[in-house]
Amino acid sequence: MTGPPSTIRSSATGAARALLGRVRRLGQALRRLADRLTRPVPAAAFWAPVWIPLVIWAQFALLGLRPALAEHQRLDREEARLDPVLAEERMENEDLQATLRAWEDPVYRERWRRQLRNAPR
């Protein structure tokens, strides 16, 4: 831009006016869009303190609480069924552990061999 100063000022002013016009048109378009979108919103916004907790409660009740309670009951029944089995398995494990410790003892193994040799036939 190597023209007279008045030309530079007028072109800068024209660019600023054009930019300002674009910004105004954009603002008007955004206002029109906001008006179209907010017409049904006031009623929904007015009842939001009612329907938002209801939606959250329904989701929790239908998708969260009922399946969790059903699973809890199923696991309680399964636990009651498996308690005697577990007690029996623990007793068998203790017996096997005692037998293992005994067979690892060389004195016990020697006594066992002597008992087998001296057993009546």
Layout of secondary structure:
Elements: H1 5-38, H2 41-104, H3 106-117
Overall helicity: over 70%
Radius of gyration: 44 Å
Number of beta strands: 0
How do the helices and strands follow one another from N- to C-terminus?
Answer: HHH
Task: Explain what this protein looks like in three dimensions.
With 121 residues, the chain is mostly helical. It has a domain at 1-39. 91% of the residues lie in helices and 0% in strands. The protein has three helices and no strands. It has helices at residues 5-38, 41-104, 106-117. The N and C termini lie far apart (126 Å). The mean pLDDT is 85.
Brief descriptors of the model:
0% strand; 121 residues; mainly alpha; 91% helix; 3 helices
Tell me briefly what this model is.
The chain is mostly helical and 121 residues long. It has helices at residues 5-38, 41-104, 106-117.
